[in-house]
Each structure stands twice: as C-alpha cells, then as structure tokens.
Amino acid sequence: xxxxTASNSFVYDASYENVFDAAKKALxxxxxxxxxxxxxxxxxxxxxxxSLVSWGENIDISIxxxxxxxxxxxxxSGAKAQLVDWGKSEKNVHKFFAAxxxxxxx
Length: 106
Known about the structure:
By secondary structure, the protein is an alpha+beta fold. It has one domain (5-105): Alpha-D-Glucose-1,6-Bisphosphate, Chain A, domain 4 (2-Layer Sandwich). Helices cover 30% and strands 39% of the residues. The protein has two helices and five strands. It has a five-stranded antiparallel sheet with strand order 1-5-4-3-2. The termini are far apart.
C-alpha cells in the first residue's frame, strides 16, 4: 500500500530553456496530459489518467534556474480521489525522471 502523494527533485547540468522543453516532452512520453505550462514561472501542471489501481493523479512540476547551466526540477504527484494510491504516485515520479533523463541525454 502506498501513500497518496510522492515528490522529489533533481538538479541538472543544463540550461533552463532545455530542461523546461525536455520536461514537457517527458510528460508526454509518460502519457501524462499536460494541462498548463508556464515557461515564465517554471510551472507545469499535468495529470495521469485512471488505471486499475488509481482514479488518476495530479502532477505538478516546478523548474528553476539555480546557476549558469544548473536547473532544479521538482515534481509532486498526488492521488485525485482516493486515500491510498497503491504506490502509483511514486511510480509517476520515477517514470517522469527516467523520461526526463532520456530527453536530456539526446
């Protein structure tokens, strides 16, 4: 049984522009629906659809430049309408960062 939320953050040796664009593509690679993306604020809102173990999750991405070619990416994933998510939020976090890593290596 998993908690209903999960979060994590990583710092990438890449420009803010590259990371922001790669994050949007990574969300799409994960089949998450991007609802809103604001490059000025570094905020991306997305959602994961209904599955066998979940009614879906809300996903919030926060991207900030912390230095020259240093960009922090944070993610929060939380269940939409249930008390337990059976580990789905944690899987969303891992899936997103794996996709982002692949995108930034290209």
